[in-house]
Design a protein that fits this description.
alpha+beta, Elongation Factor Tu (Ef-tu), domain 3, single chain, Rossmann fold, elongation factor, cytoplasm, 6 domains, 626 residues, six-stranded mixed beta sheet, EFTu-like_2, 29% strand, eight-stranded antiparallel beta sheet, GTP-binding
Amino acid sequence: MEKRYFTIGMAGHIDHGKTSLTKALTNVDTDRLKEEKERQISIELGFAPLYEDHEIQISVIDVPGHERFIRQMIAGVAGIDLVVLVVAADEGVMPQTREHLDILKFLGVKTGIIAISKIDRVDEEFIELVKDDILEELTGTVFEDAPFVLVDSLSHKGIDKIKNLIIKTLKEQEMRDAKGAFRLPIDQVFTVKGQGTVVRGTVYEGSVEEGQTLKIMPKGHEVRARQIQIHHSPAQKAFAGQRAAINLSGVAKEDLERGEVLVSSEHFIVTKTLDVAVRVVEDLDHLVKQRMPIKLHIGTAEVMGRIVFFDRNELKVENDEILCQLRLEEEVLTKRGDRFILRRPSPQKTIGGGWVIDPRGNKYRFGDQTIEELEKKKAGSPKERITAALIEAKSLPLVELIKRTALDESTLKEHLTEEDVVFYNGKEYTLPVLIHSIEEDIYDRLQGFHQFHPMKIGVNKAELLQLLQKRFPKSLLEFVLENGITKRIFKRKDQFVSLAGFVPHVPESWQKRTENMLEKINADGLKVRSLKDYFIEAGIPGNLETDLKRFLKDQELIVLLDEQFAYHGKVFNAAIEKLRSHTGAEFEVGAAKETLGLSRKYMIPFLEQLDALGLTKRLENKRVWQ
């Protein structure tokens, strides 16, 4: 069985015993800062290993409970798989407990355990009252059916029970996606003497190994993972769900900060505009107005922005999800499905939270139509999102398809089946319906061209593609055209493209006149008149002259000596054979004139045409047969 990795969080009001419970469970004091010791409160996130066997590894985050340190709390909870909500027996549910519950709900944490702490301070009867109080407060929350455990960290009552319950619960739970691209939101940056810059965080998804090249986003710094540690022990790799410290080369501590994200892939989107689904807290005591400033907490990032509604100008109480947009002052790295918290900058209070529908939000009009579009985006299945992305872009490589659909690589590849998409050029995806549409478009254009220009062998390929490039990528057009040639829908001669069954021909209304003209050119042998004279004599209009001349040349019915004269194809070929049979391996102009009986005005263009065709090669005043 593949080993699984989980991180759990301790949440609750200040001084309800989260840090003490963590220490009792792990033998690690997570209050490591001097000011934390002095003030006896947690300021930064504290981490400790809880349990490990061949099947599972569990880490603990002790998140600060004090209101002023709520942003650190959000950064910690954002990466956890189970929450232990700590409520002191002698105080019960307090304001920070309620805010933590809201945050846990908005971040989508579904698994929880209630730890009633400090039970040695009260009698059993009081504990029952506290239980009732907690049950009442938890009604309608994710903790409504969570199990209760009575604990006391000093006497160690209930510690083994809660530890075993945590292990049992997580062994029955699916771990995060370790197969996708690696992502670690950074919650701590520091230096180690002799080692350099170190970042720490919870691996959201994927895995990382020593020596791997990574990027710090959104700035784009390229770095290398020199060393990896899991709870102060060296490790070759770190997996989704683990707390990891990674020693980076290629970047200074001063260039990094909490909120940036360490990634292994270009697939993730950096953005300032998010289409989102939001829920607000039940006890919202201030109106949330259109374009009101908000503080977004997503991953470990904390960014200012504004909330933009499309179906209202304000809200106070709302039970349903609100589809809206967040326009940020700074870029964040995110993907579809990521959870976030919204807080009011002043007074600082949690407004609500939700999840990212589309990290590539556009500017939309106010009104029902936009809400309908967002509803479609929200509800879209992976197949629908792939289809929508390809309908819009026509053709996308995998990296861009991941960004546009906000699907992770493994989910995306599951739905890129041969029935649904076409993979071409070894790197791009498109839809069969688009290929069929382009094929039909090219067919119709060629058919129309042949109708109006029946004497031309086809359309210049570059010109044909240029006509379609406003609507489709050139690579896709090239593929459809070549595919059509393979299927014998189209054919190509040199740079010209035509329908497979098309044969160039003189329009029926001009066929007789053309035949008469050719007969006269043939009859005049090697001493022809100007080609234009023949066209005029045959009554062929000037607007047909260029196409007809090209057609007769392409069909080898005539051979153009120059802009003025042309020989009938049969006459030209007969002259070549006569000259070849009456000369040796090489000959001079005089010998050719004598053999064919031509004056200089015909002889020179004739010989230059032989040179152009590669039949002869001129050497000083002689020509050599090739």
